[in-house]
Protein 1
Amino acid sequence: MTKGVRGDNAVLLRRLYTSLYRIRRVEEEIVRIYPTDKIKSPSHMSLGQESVSVGVCEALRKTDIVFATYRSHAAYLAKGGDLKRMTAELYGKADGAARGKAGSMHLIDMSTGMMGTSAIVGTSLPLAVGYALAERMRGKDTVVVVFFGDGAQEEGVFHESMNFAALKKLPVLFVLENNTYAIHTPLGARVPAANFRERAATYKMPTQLIEDGDTLALLEATEAAAARMRAGGGPEFFEVMTMRWLEHVGPGDDLHLNYRTKAELDAWKAKDQVKLIGAMLDDAARGQIQREVEEEVQAALAFAEASPYPADHELYEHVYHD
């Protein structure tokens, strides 16, 4: 693991570990609660992939914009999304991020630059490009990040979006979260070669490979890329190797489906970024963070439990933008 631009900074490490551990603990609680049917929304867990969002979002300004996929909890929280409103949204409650109407796959917190996530593969790509174009026309130096999975690069809009972003030199950071599976189908059964960076390079944009979901390497790379984009350097492309620990959607283990092996999963768990970053802190600092996060997570769950369900009339509200 690289030390990163500021890897020896204790304050930075505390911030990174807080974000990583916060995502990990709230998702562990979601996994625990999911079978009770209190959570009304299908949920795609980010367990194992937390570092991708944390490493990138730590390098961003609050005014920068993030678009993400249906596996949205990590990006939402890493960008500063409200945890209480997120949990209430999963419960389908009126105090949720979208008043209980959107669920896990459509989280949004525009106050932090977290745009609504999408359940349709690849659809966030052109939205991110369009937002970047609008910000450039407004004369702003906003950086727009779009997270997407390896399955999205098989969609035509992947190429259309990269082509347009490159043509207009838009400040879009394309972040491919490559967990090597589209639901249950491995890369080798879908594409003749996993040459994603080569494809991006054909649009004349810089590309980088980040191995092992390395949080500090991602932070360092994103800081440098964001500075180049703010200076007019145009879009860039990251391929980040990672692995989800649980099934495609839901709280369960999927090894019984035999599309991946226990050895493969165990190898990734041995590189768990939550533990690796936590080990860079002393016991006292790590323990304090864990206690504070636990209090926050339990308060968020209590908030969701206490929140009312939306009134019947809300079914007809917010259908169109007012």
Protein 2
Amino acid sequence: MRFAVNLSILFTDLPLLERPAAAAKHGFDAVELWWPFDGPDPGGVALAELRRAVEDAGVRLTGLNFDAGDMAAGERGLLARPRGSARFQANIDVAVRLAGELGCTVLNALYGNGPGTDADLAVANLRGAADAARDIGATVVVEALNSHDNPLYPITSSEAAFELIDRVDRDNVAFLADLYHLHRMGEDVLALIDRHAGRFGHVQIADDPGRGRPGSGRMPYPEIFARLEAAGYRGHVGLEYRHQGPGAFDWRRA
């Protein structure tokens, strides 16, 4: 398995621009990010600083979220929100350009909280994002979140995500299999891998309960990794768990 550290949830004791180097220091050569700016376009200087921090650390950016609104305040995307659609559209070319400059080929588009989300709008926005991402050879991924942590988020199962992806009808739109969220919603993640790994554009992990590192909860991660390998998944696995102190990565040596 190839792992990528999610710098938006790990190393959060450090300023963002120091986190790529921290990941490299811990032996990782890949990182991923939620959209790290307050707004769709932070300007060239901020983007250049982030790009330089990633390049100077010698790591590769393997996943990037489109602007998802104010995540800290509980927003979870703009894709299907009529009042957020213009902001999402303003971010498409900015995010795609940054991804292209860093060789990132996975872009995550979060659906957005309800009520009032519009599935037709989500489809249109996903098509626009996918068409732009195609220019850099990238895939746009759709993620299901769990309703316990995200009670207003409408896409809470792999089935709902697959239905949306099928409506978009673009060959570079795929599923982001966040196994923590899916397991928390009661899905059999081993069966999901066996049946649908070919539809995975990206995988993210944390253990359940607690959203901690693998081994801190009850999910069978040795078997999960073996099933992903057997199913032919060759992408990175994003580490999207809470840091939990100095032993955050000791499970890799177990």
Protein 3
Amino acid sequence: MKNKSFIIVFLVLCVLFILSGCDGSSSSSDDTVGIVGSKYTSVPGDRAGVAEGDIVFADKKTCTLKNYKADAAAYAEDGVVVGIVIYKGETDTVGITGKVYIIGLNQGANLVWAPDATTGYTTEFGTSRTAGEGNWAVITAADGPGAADAATNYPAFNFAKTYSTSGYTDGWFLPSFNEIRRIYDVRGNVNQGVEVITAAGGSATKLPTSGYLCSSSQSEGTADCISRVALNNGAGSGFGDKKSAYVVRVVHTLD
């Protein structure tokens, strides 16, 4: 009788062990257990916890991609997803120190920097290679009449100027050369975010694997060229013809 009881207990323990997984832990995926830790990584006025790859909502709160994937419905109160955090500004390297930057979810395609024979095509502008948010002002100051009709004379910049989404209706800009190199470096974060956002019903576009990503940075010493980054291998160069067609992604400060 005693042996029979021992066998029953032993079988029950074996079943429990199998159900819990061979290592004694749950066999459930982390992606299916709901929000882990704090719901938000940052909110307006407190960006201490924000990180590259975070999802950004119309109300300017952010959360991890993992938490959004686990329970997208829990964030409905924050409005639509408008962007993905891509970098923090670093002194003399990328962006403006202390600022956090997000990439817009959709892109322009086959857009030129400046068409052939325009003032923009034949002018060498003193644009920044570090922070792109001031580069349109540089062009406007040098070519006011052309900038007034940006759709005709500066199509890539016009895409950024007219880009709009909930919570961020203006202020988008064409990133600088250093900024688009950073975008290429974090393309994995961007494309993973796009997959999760579209799976949840949002609108977003992955970074392509061919063509060139257009920067707002003029090449030094060559009026008709800009700096660009190849999307197939990340190679950067200062020999992009202004009248060539490019992929355009836009950037905005988080606040």
